[in-house]
Amino acid sequence: MSDTPLIKEFIYNVSIDKVWQALTSTNQMKIWYFPQLQKFEPKVGFKFQFEDDNAQYQKEWVVTRVVEGKALAHNWAYQGYSGNSEVIFELFSEKEKTTKLQVTQTGLGSFPDHPHFKRERFEWGWDHLLGENLKQLLEKNI
């Protein structure tokens, strides 16, 4: 599997502060990211806490970088599977009340050669999570 970083960009018609809040609030993350999320804190070393839903692919994520209002990163690994990638969310103020979010995911080539870990699945996932779910959450009251 290719180890070329996966990079996607999304534009939201809201302030950078509103996007940052959605990236770091457990309640908002449950809406756009993963409903199984139980607890999250934007602190380096914090291990995401997920509800044990007996899913085959249990996430083991830890925050790796926080730059308040600008960047958030975490590893992306699965219990019982080889491979570890990193997801980096970076925020850029485009103009008043418009924010660009760039997501970069590295290390996808470290995952097993299996349909669940295919690059295309992650591409679709970011389009769905950030291009649909997060956009709807952020812009629903505009």
UniProtKB/TrEMBL annotation:
It comes from the Bacteria. Transmembrane segments: none annotated. InterPro entries: ASHA1/2-like_C, START-like_dom_sf. CDD domains: SRPBCC_CalC_Aha1-like. Residues 13-139 form the Activator of Hsp90 ATPase homologue 1/2-like C-terminal domain. Pfam families: AHSA1. Coiled coil: none annotated. Belongs to the AHA1 family. This is SRPBCC domain-containing protein. It comes from Autumnicola musiva. The lineage of its organism: Bacteria, Pseudomonadati, Bacteroidota, Flavobacteriia, Flavobacteriales.
